[in-house]
Amino acid sequence: EAGVTQSPTHLIKTRGQQATLRCSPISGHTSVYWYQQALGLGLQFLLWYDEGEERNRGNFPPRFSGRQFPNYSSELNVNALELEDSALYLCASSAGRTSVQETQYFGPGTRLLVL
Amino acid sequence: AQKITQTQPGMFVQEKEAVTLDCTYDTSDPSYGLFWYKQPSSGEMIFLIYQGSYDQQNATEGRYSLNFQKARKSANLVISASQLGDSAMYFCAMREKGYGNNRLAFGKGNQVVVIP
Question: Looking at CA atoms only, how far is residue A26 from chain B in angstroms?
Answer without folding.
Answer: 14
